[in-house]
Amino acid sequence: MKKNADNKSILVVDDEENLRHMLHVMLQKQGYHVELAVEGAEALRMAAQKDYDFILCDIKMPVLDGVGFLKGANAAGIKSTVIMMSAYGTVDSAIECMKLGAYDYISKPFKSDEIGLVLRKAEERERLKAENKRLKEEINREFSFANIVSKNERMHEIFNLVQKVCDYKTTVLILGESGTGKELIARALHYNSRRKNATFVAINCAAIPENLLESELFGHMKGAFTDASSDKAGLFEQANGGTLFLDEIGEMPLALQVKLLRVLQDEEIRVVGGTVTKKIDVRVISATSKHLEQEIAAERFREDLYFRLNVFSLTLPPLRERQEDIPLLAAHFIEKYGRKMAKHVACYTPEALKLLMDYSWPGNVRELENCIERGLVLCEGEALDVECLPEKLRSMDGRGRGAGMAFDGFSIKRAEESLERALIRKALDETGGNRTHAARLLEISHRALLYKIKEYGME
Q: What global pTM score does this model have?
């Protein structure tokens, strides 16, 4: 017997004895375990007592036909994938069967490779459904509060607030430095709410060019602009019924802020190039590392939009203010990446933990995670040791500063170079390696930053 079907079980339901025999022989050769029923009522009894992977069912049968079988299967909660067969298969009967939950139908007479193709397609669909279910369960576990690692009192206050607000459509503004876990909290808001089975869509407003951001958010009609070769649904439409997370909202252009405000007020969108509006049901969560009050004072952010977004706000503390979480987070990331890399690293050495605790973590939890992942790549023992940690941690002075920030010589030129190196490294850590944002923090041009990175061999 062939094993390509992994011995999946099939129930064949048909009143024609010759066809039942032919399908029995053919499907057994393809590796399926096959059982037979003469009509729909018998098939219902068998399917109620045993779970079949697939059911091949004729439409025209005495006693209980295929349509009656489908209705009975739905009422009994039978989950098998049903494929209909009929020599009298009209479009109407096929549509009725599909409406009742049949996966597909095939017309008699058929060849063995036709049945094989339909079954392979059905198997692939079931595989994808199972994988999708597994991923959803994994996501729900990952973003449940039990899996957000912290014993910090302020973080637990935030978890309590998230639980209180998650089921409401109230807009939430998440504040905090880069790398503090703002998107993780946004996902926790979604996956612990009634919307958890709908879509969570995230967009970084700073990562999309200004001229494309409106189209990304609201969609566009074919011909709306030069490159609009077809209609495209925007992220608001994709998130309909679910949640849209607008990261780095402080980077949104003023012209687009007006349109976002209108969407939040009216709960409807208009695609670029369109003339009609469309109602949407989207929960909006936004986040920023900027001080929006300062942006409002500088007339770079609309005050009315700020009040609309800031109905409920959460401010995440930086990692340097929750040092008690560093050992927990380090152990969590060691377990996470150890599993991914198939490495048996159980913990960290006391010396390594001291360096982790002494460092100021300007890039917050994201920087710590990257540090642990890099360390596990280099780790050859059963514990993460000092030599596995980045050089910037190993070269710190006693006050947790990088050695480059504590130049001991007298050369102004060398001191300037040392200070520039340290500031560039700090800015890159702060922005998660985003050179455009780092240049803005350093108040130099992007080109100047690239030149200095190359000059100092920091690529």
A: 0.60
